[in-house]
């Protein structure tokens, strides 16, 4: 499904420095004002994601995973703390930070190519010439295997194809950091596996740095170089595991059974719920 359009050219001046963490989050806090008063979504988050690393965030519902991702993406402001991309402080959304949500959020009146173009023309994006725009669109469509569907509209796409388009729209921006918020959780099991496979190919070919929220321990073990477990009240990072098994790991579930069990046990502790009820 992959094509030779897959190798996105990166100019020398945009090459990231491997000696600096691609993402550095320092002492980040976020509260929401609710009718009952202030609610702390997360506090004291310190997190580095190295260049090319894939970090998965697991945790009970409501522990602040999506809030953390949305804050890093610049979709909302933190109350305290700092976020750095390659050493430069982020204070709002950045063209090189791309986010994909569980809901593909497509524009129904635009076709596949136009949906991707829309993401490239947003206000904070660098201005592209028409040929550059066409190249970016073709490249992104090839990266997610949607060739032949350029003129299809969102209602003509399956759930998996819609999520491919959502991913393409973000990849077309050539982000240095890809933030994924449960991107496959609404898909059926077979499509999810297909999308996990696609994500692994994209990560390996583009060497994209990824911070991904998932509820699925197996998904985290399949794609993650590191798995972080968040605890709630307030949301904070409780524990982390480094997964060194080479990828792809589809046939290696047995080798990861021990770490899987450790994660399950810790999840059970932070959720105050027996392991049997989490499975
Ligand atoms: N815009 C908002 N206004 C008020 N409270 C919010 C807002 N967004 C999230 N919250 C609250 O902040 C807490 C963290 O929510 P968040 O969605 O970040 O958790 P999560 O770990 O991603 O949950 P889930 O896994 O269920 O998606 C929750 O208690 C939630 O109700």
From TrEMBL:
Transport is among the record's keywords: yes
GO CC terms: plasma membrane
Q: Which UniProt keywords apply?
A: ATP-binding, Nucleotide-binding, Transport
Any matching Pfam family: ABC_tran
InterPro entries from the xrefs? AAA+_ATPase, ABC_transporter-like_ATP-bd, ABC_transporter-like_CS, ABC_transporter_ATP-bind, P-loop_NTPase
The record's family statement is: Belongs to the ABC transporter superfamily. Nitrate/nitrite/cyanate uptake transporter (NitT) (TC 3.A.1.16) family.
**Protein name from the UniProt record:** ABC transporter ATP-binding protein
Q: Which organism encodes this protein?
A: Tumidithrix elongata BACA0141
């Amino acid at each position: 499904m992959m094509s030779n359009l897959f190798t996105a050219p990166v100019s020398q001046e945009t090459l990231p420095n491997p000696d600096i963490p691609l993402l550095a989050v320092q002492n980040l806090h976020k509260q929401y004002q609710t009718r009952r008063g202030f609610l702390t979504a997360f506090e004291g988050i310190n997190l580095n994601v190295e260049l090319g690393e894939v970090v998965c965030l697991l945790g009970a519902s409501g522990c602040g995973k999506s809030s953390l991702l949305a804050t890093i993406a610049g979709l909302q402001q933190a109350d305290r703390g700092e976020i750095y991309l390659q050493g430069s402080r982020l204070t709002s959304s950045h063209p090189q930070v791309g986010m994909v949500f569980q809901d593909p959020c497509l524009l129904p009146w635009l076709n596949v190519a136009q949906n991707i173009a829309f993401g490239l023309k947003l206000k904070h994006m660098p201005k592209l010439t028409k040929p550059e725009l066409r190249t970016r669109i073709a490249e992104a469509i090839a990266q997610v295997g949607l060739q032949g569907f350029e003129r299809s509209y969102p209602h003509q796409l399956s759930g998996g194809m819609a999520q491919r388009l959502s991913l393409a729209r973000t990849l077309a921006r050539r982000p240095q950091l890809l933030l994924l918020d449960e991107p496959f959780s609404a898909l059926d099991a077979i499509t999810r596996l297909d999308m996990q496979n696609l994500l692994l190919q994209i990560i390996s070919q583009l060497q994209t740095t990824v911070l991904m929220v998932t509820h699925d321990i197996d998904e985290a073990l399949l794609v993650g170089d590191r798995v972080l477990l968040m605890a709630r009240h307030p949301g904070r990072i409780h524990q982390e595991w480094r997964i060194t098994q080479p990828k792809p790991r589809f046939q290696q579930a047995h080798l990861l059974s021990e770490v899987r069990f450790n994660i399950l046990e810790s999840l059970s502790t932070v959720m105050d719920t027996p392991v049997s009820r989490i499975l």
